[in-house]
Design a protein that fits this description.
The complex is a heterodimer of chains A (about 850) and B (about 220). In chain A, helix 7 packs across helix 22 and helix 11 runs antiparallel to helix 14. Chain A is built from 29 helices and 26 strands. Chain A has a 6-stranded mixed beta sheet with strand order 5-4-16-15-14-6, covered by helices on one side. Chain A has a 6-stranded mixed barrel with strand order 21-25-22-24-23-26. Chain A has 4 domains: about 35 residues, no CATH class; about 260 residues, Rossmann fold; about 210 residues, 3-Layer(aba) Sandwich (Dimethylsulfoxide Reductase, domain 2), CATH 3.40.228.10; about 140 residues, Barwin-like endoglucanases. Chain A is an alpha/beta fold. Chain A starts with a helix and ends with a helix. Chain B has one domain: 2-Layer Sandwich (Alpha-Beta Plaits), CATH 3.30.70. Chain B is about 25% helix and about 20% strand. Chain B is built from 7 helices and 9 strands; from the N terminus they run αβαββαββαββααβαβ. Classes of the chains: A alpha/beta (about 850), B alpha+beta (about 220). Chain B: This is 4Fe-4S dicluster domain-containing protein. Chain B: Keywords: 4Fe-4S, Electron transport, Iron, Iron-sulfur, Metal-binding, Repeat, Transport. Chain B: GO terms for molecular function: 4 iron, 4 sulfur cluster binding; metal ion binding.
Chain lengths: ~850, ~220
């Protein structure tokens, strides 16, 4: 800077007239017109968004789409884009539906407002962790060293390896672990059982399927046994009609079961509904609904429910008329002829068979809830009509978790709260039925050669061939391959981070090194991806054409156009499978797998995807569901919201009109016909005996077991609010709002000398993790809460510095298949080890590795 | 703890300072936020919507859902206090600004910062009792909530309000909010609106344009 210029600028800065300008400029707005301004060339009026350009929403292109993951609901996202870049996201504001306008938000067609995870989608879409090119591993599994390869090289490798493995090891050598990373699109569906991957491997003729669902297998089992269906759910607006709502292990403030459930529950509160929370934690739901909090020892729920049942039976508060008409095996009078010699539920509760009446006092010893509270709750529940006992999934993710759900169904039935508005039979909670399938669905959709309990793959791999069928929950087959132990040599992950999410990660690490092919198809790198041989970059739901379904509740469809072109070289999973089919089996396999496509589908998919979706809309949505909106209008609006004649209540038909339940007996089966007739449990997929009536069974570890002398804390791992399982763990916005931490009761923490923010080690004989602590009065003593899904970050000693609870969980499922995620004892101590909140620091370096040729 | 006398002195000092530097803007209509502390589930969708709208990286949080909890196990309580910029009647930030970047709009009383005038001195950040203006190290300037003026001018509501899954956050004329006459589902049929909640800065300092449905444990007597 020259002297002259410096003087000038000094003069300017010292100019008194400028100061007077500032004074007036501060008044702001258009009123600034003081004389001093004219002299000042730099002066200008203060205004909003002064940095130009600031594109307002109305200057950008608006595209209606939705979020995509399996969080328990589905909401609208509205992309505001500039050319091929999404500038920001908003959500439903009432404008997009038919007859909509800004602000329209009535109870019939409420807005579908996205949650914090959905709103942070741009961070995931444009994250440093995005996979942009196919990669192949060059280091050891888990080391995270990859080189960029062409699609041709990657797919050639995968195809030839698949053929080699199948030829060498037979038709059970490949496990499909497809899950939720891209779930619930009607076309690109990464469904665990019948998605695109299962179809692909089944057609290829080499597939070991994984049948138990991590989130809710105990609950699914219970609903199927008791009601014959998982469609035991009400639509969320029905909750507004309850007079009493018992949230059993349910935290709708975190896990949005249905798009607007929490909002309708607020409505119930305003109408005088009383709320109760049975949970080891005083959750935000308890706070928002001003609930009576009953802290309970984890994994003892069935005992408390048995105590409630005892009180209800002995005080004659049960609805005998309902029981006689609709239930099987509730009491001696409702036993079917063929089962006269079997136990019935009431007599079990009264202690007729084991001389152990399941009194509230008996239950109190087990569950830690005072008997008077059990009585009070039982009394409330039996006397308040209608009352909703919402038996959530979490207490079912336990050893014998299915007994909890079965017991809950018995309570719901004995109080006659099934099939009525304001009552509740959930359970699984699937309500309105959506037309879910636009992808090819035919005889090939679910071909498998063996099927195992999902968390047993590592056990199977490590112990092959010395594995008993009951250990891995082998699903029976009708041919001579029944009972053959699968010889697993490869894994496919499609939209799935199961390596990070299944139980007992250390065992998985041991097992994965025995595999010959590990393929990970995802849109970002994940902890699972680090262990893969081949990483295939998959287009996100913003980058492909699809339609979104509501999750288990909600009645609407949201159009998901291709908002932007796929980033990098990413392709849709449907494209990848189609291409692999052509490479492996030529035109025959290719066209059978994707009948509407040609070989060029890998490069041009728009028309084919459109054809599938239009066919789905015309045949299923218009044809079956009688929607009066054309496909073109739907595409133009972006959303279709159904209006229901009356609130959807599960089993209303059965209760009001006497329609049969879908069980073998046509009744609510407290005594499950199917279970009562099993003689050889080893030959069932369960492997071990399951009582045919709901019973309390002592779990293999809990706060009541002797193991507490070594491991005094019971660890539970609920779903976090700031991730959908492991998805979004890399988003800094969400990281900033919540932190991976262990929640401890204040008295416990005091005893351990721990304060909020201290870093602790949590360990048991399966693993060790490091996390900071959150000390609170809102958690039951003896219980530690660590949310699932954080991306593992192992140090050289194998300690997970990120704090993933699945380092500590046991890969021993409940007989019915429930993952025992919440049946974990552990110990806790202060540590000097550093917590690594995940990959935010590491992402940079890893992205560097991922994005160049090694 | 300041004594009564101190408070009076501070008040006088603040008044004097304001008079010297700033002629207050009297808006035609003052807009403000209303938040239901009790019914809020604390999901923070509003926070993320705000981050996305304003293109912020990790760091500045224009909107902050604060978690308050208390009691002793098992008799506990919890509630949320949600605050961004309160677009105060007498903004403490405004007179501190040496470049005149901060201004209050005549039409609706929204307080905003002109980012081309801001030099990032952070004086406003220190002055605000609510933590609304926040330094963005990336752009080297201070930023804060402007109630999404672009949305307001388009006849809509700010991103945070439109993000609220529970419908417990809203905006409106602050006088109507305080009177309880604003038509909004954020305030339930039996709810009363208060201007202040426990542990919040003295509202006399800046006269924040915000109303709350306070939790029983969060009420100011």
């Amino acid at each position: 800077m020259s002297i002259e210029k410096l003087t000038q600028s000094l003069n300017k800065r010292l100019n008194l007239s400028r100061r007077s300008f500032l004074k007036s400029a501060a008044v702001g707005g258009a009123s600034v017109a003081a004389g001093g301004l004219v002299e000042m060339k730099t002066a200008k009026e203060a205004k909003a968004f002064a940095y130009e350009p600031y594109p307002t929403d109305d200057q950008l292109e608006t595209v209606v789409t939705s979020c995509a993951h399996n969080c328990g609901s589905r909401h609208m996202l509205v992309a505001h884009k500039w050319k091929d870049v999404i500038v920001r996201l908003s959500t439903d504001d009432g404008r997009y539906q038919r007859d909509g306008h800004f602000g329209k938000d009535d109870n019939e067609e409420p807005q579908l407002r996205a949650c914090l995870r959905g709103r942070s989608y741009r961070q995931r879409l444009y994250s440093a962790e995005r996979l942009l090119y196919p990669m192949m591993r060059v280091g050891k599994r888990g080391e995270g060293k990859f080189k960029r390869v062409s699609w041709d090289e990657a797919l050639t490798h995968v195809a030839s390896k698949m053929v080699e493995i199948k030829d060498t090891y037979g038709p059970t050598a490949l496990v499909d672990q497809s899950y939720a990373g891209a779930s619930y699109g009607v076309l690109h569906k990464s469904d665990q059982i019948e998605g695109l991957l299962g179809r692909f491997l089944g057609m290829f003729g080499c597939r070991t399927s994984s049948w138990s669902v991590p989130s809710y297998q105990g609950t699914t089992f219970s609903s199927r046994m008791t009601f014959g269906t998982i469609e035991d759910g009400n639509e969320d607006d029905t909750f507004a009609h309850s007079k009493l709502m018992i949230m059993w292990g349910w935290n709708p403030a975190y896990t949005f079961h249905g798009g607007n459930t929490f909002m309708y529950m607020r409505m119930a509160k305003q109408r005088g509904c009383k709320f109760v929370l049975v949970d080891p934690q005083y959750t935000d739901s308890a706070a928002a609904y001003d609930a009576w909090w009953i802290p309970i020892r984890p994994n003892t729920d069935a005992a408390m429910m048995a105590g409630m049942a005892h009180y209800i039976f002995t005080n004659d508060l049960h609805d005998q008329e309902f029981i006689d008409q609709f239930c099987q095996g509730m009491d001696a009078g409702t036993m079917p002829e063929w089962a006269k010699d079997k136990e019935n539920f009431k007599d079990y509760i009264l202690g007729k068979y084991d001389n152990e009446p399941k009194t509230p006092e008996w239950a109190a010893e087990i569950c830690g809830v005072p008997a008077e509270d059990i009585i009070k709750l039982a009394d409330m529940y039996a006397r308040t009509k209608p009352a909703a006992l919402k038996a959530s999934w979490a207490p079912g993710r336990n050893a014998y978790g299915e007994q909890y759900n079965r017991m809950a169904a018995a309570l719901q039935a004995m109080t006659g709260n099934i099939g009525i508005l304001g009552g509740c039979a959930e359970g699984v909670g699937k309500a309105w039925h959506a037309e879910a399938v636009a992808y090819p669905y035919d005889q090939y959709s679910n071909i498998w050669f063996q099927s195992i309990k999902s968390d047993r793959w590592a056990h199977c791999v490590l112990n092959y061939p010395n594995v008993k069928r009951e250990e891995i929950g082998l699903w029976p087959r009708q041919d001579d391959t029944d009972g053959q132990i699968p010889n697993i040599k490869g894994i496919f992950w499609q939209g799935s981070d199961w390596f990070n999410q299944l139980t007992n990660i250390n065992k998985e690490i041991e097992a994965i090194n025995k595999l010959e092919l590990v393929v990970c198809m995802d849109s970002t790198i994940t902890p699972s991806g680090l262990y893969a041989d081949v990483l295939l970059p998959i287009a996100t739901h913003f980058e492909r054409h699809d339609v979104a379904l509501p999750w288990y509740k909600g009645h609407y469809y949201i159009h998901r156009p291709k908002v932007i072109e796929p980033m990098g070289e990413s392709k849709t999973d449907f494209q990848v499978f189609t291409e692999l089919a052509y490479r492996i089996g030529g035109n025959v396999f290719g066209q059978a797998f994707n009948p509407k496509a040609n070989r060029d589908y890998f490069h041009i998919n728009d028309n084919v995807d459109e054809a599938y979706l239009k066919e789905w809309w015309d045949q299923k949505v218009i044809g079956h569901q009688h929607v009066d909106m054309s496909w073109d209008e739907f595409k133009q609006r972006g959303v279709y919201k159904f209006k229901l004649d009356q609130p959807h209540v599960a089993f209303r038909e059965q209760i009001e009109n006497g329609k049969a339940f879908q069980t073998p007996s046509g009744k609510i089966e407290i005594l499950a016909s199917q279970l009562a007739q099993i003689t050889d449990w080893k030959k069932t997929m369960y492997g071990y005996e399951i009582p045919y009536i709901p019973k309390w069974i002592e779990p293999w570890e809990s706060l009541n077991s002797p193991k507490t002398s070594e491991f005094p804390f019971h660890l539970i791992s609920p779903h976090p609010r700031w991730r959908t399982h492991s998805i979004f763990n890399n988003c800094s916005w969400l990281r900033e709002t919540y932190e991976q931490e262990v929640t401890l009761n204040a008295a416990d923490a005091k005893q351990l000398g721990i304060r909020t923010g201290d870093t602790v080690e949590i360990w048991n004989d399966r693993g060790r993790v490091v996390v900071p602590t959150y000390v609170t009065e809102r958690c039951m003593p003896g219980v530690a809460v660590l949310h699932e899904g954080v991306w593992i970050d192992l140090d050289s000693e194998g300690v997970d510095r990120a704090g993933n609870p699945d380092m500590l969980t046991l890969d021993e499922p409940s007989p019915a298949g429930a993952f025992a995620y919440n049946t974990v004892l552990c110990n806790i101590k202060k540590t000097d080890l550093e917590h690594r909140p995940g990959w935010d620091q590491l992402a940079t370096s890893r992205a560097h590795v991922f994005r160049r040729d090694l | 703890m300041t004594s009564k006398q101190d408070k009076a002195r501070i008040k006088a000092a603040v008044k004097r300072r304001k008079r010297e530097t700033y002629t207050p803007v009297v808006p035609d209509k003052q807009l403000g936020f209303v938040h239901n502390n009790v019914d809020c589930i604390g999901c923070r969708a509003c926070e993320i919507a705000c981050k996305d709208k304003n293109g912020l990286s990790a760091g500045p949080r224009f909107r902050r859902v604060q978690y308050i909890e208390g009691g002793t196990y098992p008799d506990v309580y919890a509630y949320k206090v949600n605050m961004s910029c309160n677009h105060c009647e007498s903004p403490a930030c405004l007179p501190t600004c040496p470049t005149g970047a901060i201004f209050k709009r005549k039409a609706d009383g929204i307080v905003d910062i002109d980012s081309t005038l801001c030099i990032g001195c952070r004086r406003c950040e220190a002055a605000c009792p609510f933590g609304a203006p926040q330094f963005d190290p990336g752009d080297n300037i201070v930023k804060k909530c402007n109630m999404c003026v672009d949305e307001i001018e388009a006849g809509r509501k700010p991103y945070c309000v439109m993000a609220c899954m529970m419908r417990v956050l809203d905006i409106g004329s602050i006088d109507e909010i305080w009177r309880g006459s604003l038509e909004t589902v954020a305030i339930g049929p039996a709810d009363k609106v208060s201007k202040q909640v426990k542990n919040m800065a003295n509202i006399e300092l800046t006269k924040p344009s915000i109303g709350f449905v306070a939790h029983s444990k969060g009420k100011v007597k």
